[in-house]
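Fig. S4 source data, part A: sequence.
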Amino acid sequence: MTTSKPHIAVVGAGLAGLSCATHLHREGLQVSVFDKSRGPAGRMSTRRGDDWQCDHGAQYFTARHPDFRLEVEGWMCAGVAGCWPDKVAILGDSGPHVSDPHLERFVGVPRQTAPVRFMVDALAQSVGFKMQTTVEHLLREDSRWQLQTKEAGVIGQDFDAVVLALPAPQSVPLLRPVAPDLAELANCANMRGSWALMLRFGDRVALPFDAAFVNHGPLRWIARDSSKPGRTGPETWLLHARAEWSEAHLEDDIEGVAEKLLQAFRDLGGPEPQAWTAHRWRYADTEPALTIGSAWDAQSSIGLCGDWMCGGKVEGAWLSGRELAQRIVASVC
């Protein structure tokens, strides 16, 4: 019987993957995290320029589950999260009204990536992070796993288990050769894209709200990003297109997409920006989001976690990663 710590590979450094890695580490397991991006965050992302920034993925998060509430309170004590805003408008055919005034919305401070960075910093001394590493194949060697990557071939480590904390469509090709049942589960998730447009202004935009859900036209959400706590720099706004519209225009020319979204913003009373930047999220949400929490195949020692498995929100991503960690610990320890 081996006395070494089980070694778990976590593929994906968004909130779900980091939550799983954090809880595995707390239980004494060895963890290595891999991600194809330059830095961790997933959809808790912030675009930064020379003198501006704008959250262009998840816009805020709630904390309804008591355990996630404790996590968020820890983030707030550390200064990496805060409340925002008091009121959110709802713009529809019947005119504007106010969203639930009692719902607490939280954001990262000074940017949405801050809680993720806080989690990474807490793990940095004991968990290996390999960024800009695209996992292309999972290779079984006896009872151990190896990862084949686009950039460096086969990683010179082997693992007792693998966690895929990825959007469902990115998990499917990795799973089909080695865990077909999990591949079928991931293939059932209907993940949709979304266009995001980040706007910069020289002066404050004279709209009577800092954020709004939009119930008509191509837009679904608009927000004065610079109104969030801890933000500095010029006035910035974020426009999110609705999923149905985005799916229909996902491969359109970026200039044409931007003009349609800017026109929708003008129709709501918004002015012309000094500059804009667009981002296409291929996997922004899941309709409908699954509610199974996570998935663990003890026979293959592969697990899945992500917001798409747990309600589709930031809170769900954290809960999904934690649940999978608990299942892995019960299985391999």
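Fig. S4 source data, part B ends here. The longest helix spans residues 314-332.
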